[in-house]
Specification:
By secondary structure, this protein is an alpha+beta fold. The protein has a single domain, classed as Sandwich (Immunoglobulin-like), CATH 2.60.40.1220. Helix content is about 15%, strand content about 40%.
């Protein structure tokens, strides 16, 4: 019985470790729910390094039209994705749909909104 409990505990701890091995969005600029002046770029910070070829965002404006983006880039430790915005964003609410592939192969995705005043 003791062996079974030890195996179960080990299995649960490994499962918890595997669940944490995903690139979760930990911060963003503009912040989710914030009202800001029109940004020149978006910055998304992940909990671990991501693969630029398979990580990105789709931005839609208040009229549901896609926002034109410049070329995205990663910082040196590959945890901060910067996405330039082409032109000036008009007032209204914007939706950012993001997806990420961590360098260890795990996919994550999500979305948030911010408002341009």
């Amino acid at each position: 019985m003791k062996t079974y409990a030890l195996i179960l505990a080990l299995g649960l701890s490994l499962s918890a470790t595997a669940a944490l091995a995903h690139a979760h969005l930990t911060a963003q600029t503009p912040a989710a729910g914030a009202t800001v002046a029109a940004p020149a770029a978006l910055s998304l910070t992940f909990s671990e390094d991501v693969n630029l070829a398979f990580t990105g965002v789709a931005i839609t404006g208040p009229d549901k039209a896609p926002v034109t983006q410049g070329t995205p880039s990663l910082n040196a430790d590959q945890t901060v994705l910067t996405v330039p915005v082409a032109g000036t964003l008009a007032a209204g609410t914007y939706t950012v749909d993001w997806h990420a592939l961590s360098n260890d192969g795990h996919k994550t995705q999500g979305h948030y909104t911010f408002t341009v005043k």
